[in-house]
Amino acid sequence: MPEGDIVLRVARRLDLALAGQRLARGELRWGDLGDVDLAGSTVLTNLPVGKHLLTRLDDGRTLHTHLRMDGSWWITRAGEERGADRSHRVRAVLGTDRWTCMGRSLGMVDLVRTRDERLVVGHLGPDLLADGVDLEECGRRVRAQGDRPIGAVLLDQTVVAGIGTLYLAESLWAHRIHPLRPAHEVSEPVCVTARELMLRSADAPLPTATGETAPGRTSHVHGRGRLPCRRCGTPIAELQVGPPDKLRPAFFCPRCQPA
Ligand SMILES: [Zn+2]
User: Fold this and answer.
1) Which end of the chain has the smaller Cβ count within 10 Å, N or C?
2) Structure confidence at residue 213 (pLDDT)
3) Residues lower than pLDDT 70 in the chain
4) Which residues are marked as active site?
5) Domains in the chain, please, with CATH?
6) Cβ 207 vs Cβ 232: under 8 Å
């Protein structure tokens, strides 16, 4: 599941291929955007905002995409797509004379005026991975959620943006905090830790130029249900957090992170 670290990594890779370059191809395969042709526009930047990505063009438009559960961007040299760009999974193709970037299984594609970007990302809290993000303010926003369980609060992108189930679990484990502890009781710097872990992942070198893996991601608790805690050996447990219609797993150690 892509979280802020993956989106930051994607944005950097897309910048290497596209920033400052004129698009030779700009195809969107998403609802009524199918007739849009972005070719001829120049890409200014790819800006990650939490788990969202804003690809700004020089014609005053912004392509807004979201990876959701399974999305990814695949980059090949132009002319070496070998039909991959025609896959039914591809939702966007942004290409220059040198590179072809294919957005596969994207969960969201929008085209908005750049001055209207807040329509698509204005609901988000501060981006934990943004340069100069005010981490003390992030901590205050988390504690201001009162009795809400900290696990649900960290997943709520309107409070702070970028954390998914992996960094929720890892950050709380690092500070020995139970996922159901009320947010107002959490004085530990969980946002600082989440940012550090995500940046460590985003900055880790990729094994190949086009690889999709996340080599800098390490999991102490996430996805390790019933396996021994790496700190105390107790079997890792799992509970569900979030609104009833959007429950997500929170892995934790019952001994290190007591209720
Ligand atoms: Zn433990």
Assistant:
1) C
2) 54
3) 207-215
4) 2-3, 51, 248
5) 4-121 (3.20.190.10), 135-252 (1.10.8.50)
6) no
